[in-house]
Amino acid sequence: MEQVMASIPDFEIAETGISKDNSAEAEQFKIRVDEIFQKVDELEQKVNEVEQFNLNSSKKQQSSSKGSSMGKERDKGRQVPSIKKQQQDASRREAAAAKRMQELMRQFGTIVRQITQHKWAWPFMQPVDVKGLGLHDYYEIIEKPMDFSTIKNQMEAKDGTGYKNVRDICADVRLVFNNAMKYNDEGSDVHLMAKTLLEKFEEKWQLLLPKVTEEERRRDEEEAEAQLDMQLVREAAHAKVVRDLCNELYEVDTHLEHLRETVVQKCRLVLDLKRFCYLV
After folding, report:
1. What is the 3-state secondary structure (H, E, C) of the chain?
2. Which parts of the chain sit beneath pLDDT 50?
3. Rounded Cα distance, 196 and 180, in Å
4. CB-CB contact of 126 with 147 (8 Å)
5. Cβ distance 190 to 184 under 8 Å?
6. What is the domain extent for residue 197?
């Protein structure tokens, strides 16, 4: 518009009555165009975000495509949970899972008591007196010392530093006996005592293991369920972004069309005025 107006000499503008106010009007057009360009840049960034989301979703679907047909059928009628409901469900799941794990740990505690009450358990009840026994190479051979008093304290800890999982306690019980067998010669009394008690422990552990495995399976399923709910929430939010983006694009397109029509009308007016100037 400014270029068109610039092509008309000042005297022609004066003679034909074209006001200098047209320059102000052109400046207003420029401002509106700049605003639209800024809006377009913002929309372009949103479009890129949408495309990136779609790309990431596509990759996730491809990586989990094996055996997913049944899952897709199951999820077709699934309602999108709200963020608040998700948080409430997560809190309930965590509380229930913690309660179930506490029960498993209580049952495991019974196994520990049975082992520690054995007549051969006394060498393993307290930390090894490395200095008193003159075991100068103990820490070179044993990387992580362990004993049943340490296990008991951690099982009873109330400050959040205790065991969170039965398998962690199981690993430490095994460590007690494996350390003893590793440091003491195979023919020694301590080695034999540790080997015997480890075998007894493994027998009792096998009785509890199915319950532990079932709890782990349940936790995995609940975690998968929670991740699916989160994915549905993300997809719902993404769909809203897409809808809003489409509305904004339509609005920008409408503004551009209006500007185009206005500029065309103004240009036609200027051309008609120029023709009039040449005729007179």
Report:
1. CHHHHHCCCHHHHHHHCCCCHHHHHHHHHHHHHHHHHHHHHHHHHHHHHHHHHHHHHHHHHHHCCCCCHHHHHHHCCCCCCCHHHHHHHHHHHHHHHHHHHHHHHHHHHHHHHHHHCCCCCHHHCCCCCCCCCCCCCHHHHCCCCCCHHHHHHHHHCCCCCCCCCHHHHHHHHHHHHHHHHHHCCCCCHHHHHHHHHHHHHHHHHHHHHHHHHHHHHHHHHHHHHHHHHHHHHHHHHHHHHHHHHHHHHHHHHHHHHHHHHHHHHHHHHHHHHHHHHHHC
2. 1-18, 66-75
3. 12
4. yes
5. yes
6. 86-223
Residue with structure tokens 């709910």? 229
pLDDT, position 9: 46
The token duo for 134 is: 């003159």
Q: Residue 146: what are its φ and ψ, rounded to 5°? A: -155, 145
Would you say how long the chain is, in residues?
Answer: 280
Asked if the structure places residue 272 within a domain, the reply is: no
CB crowding 55-87: b at 16 or more within 10 Å, else e: eeeeeeeeeeeeeeeeeeeeeeeeeebeeeeee
Here the tokens at position 110 are: 């019974």
- Mean pLDDT estimate for the chain: 77
Q: Residue 151 CB: number of other CB atoms within 10 A? A: 22
Question: What are the tens digits of pLDDT across the range 72-112?
Answer: 444 455 555 566 766 676 778 788 888 898 999 999 999 99
CA angle 137, 138, 139 (to 5 degrees): 95
Residue 212 CA from chain centroid, whole number:
27
Domains in the chain, number: 1
Query: Is residue 172 assigned to a domain?
Result: yes
Q: Are 149 and 205 a contacting pair, CB within 8 Å?
A: no
CB 149 within 8 A of CB 127: yes
Q: CATH number of the domain at 142, please.
A: 1.20.920.10
